[in-house]
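step 3/5: co-fold with zinc ion
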Amino acid sequence: MAVASNRAATIEWVYDEDMGARHRLPRVHPRGLLLQLYDRIRGRDQLLIQAGDELPLVVASYPKGRAWFGASLQSALCSIFRSLSSEQRAVYREALDRTPSMVVVELRRANACGCLGHHHPPGTESRLARRLAADTGLVVGEIDLAVQSIREWQPLPLAALAAAVAATEQSSRAETSAELEYRRFHTALLAVFLHEIEHLAFPARPEQAVRRRSDEFYLSAMRDYVRVEYGVAYGI
Ligand SMILES: [Zn+2]
Ligand SMILES: [Zn+2]
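step 4/5: write tokens
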């Protein structure tokens, strides 16, 4: 799943299905590059996430010292996914049924190509995924997610959402927007995770269809949350 942002207001969608071959050349900020290298050389930690029968067993791998990357994915899979209606969860049932029972999720700060995530086709998996497959005898799938980019990504205008909520809410505006921000971030993380899972399960499906499904999933999850928690109908 891809979004290239030049840090201005414009957001340009690009395609992730060919692992970046058609992406625009990134404009990598030197500081971003240094941070990325730093993450790479200081090693990685892993977190095992068991989120119930409907989701695969996830081995999250993230740079040492960035435990919040793993904790955020855990919240997306364990708490947000379970809070959804069965209709919403059913949208990905077909893809999840075809997904390997173990999936390695490489959590990164950002991708140099600007994508929010990729699926890793068979044969391109990391050493960790290959080792897990050899040790367990299971088929192990792999995707990556750009956690910081997903956090900054705002397919819904959050400010407008927060304002709509605050207009009818007793709690303070700051409290409301912090709560909403976390919910939005973890819901977006779940939506990009499921988007990449669908690519893993159905490699031939066109990006447009996969993208439409994950966008609708995200919107419907956020709408329901805001309606139930705050009693606000939010139309886009
Ligand atoms: Zn995609
Ligand atoms: Zn990419």
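step 5/5: annotate
The chain has one domain: 4-230.
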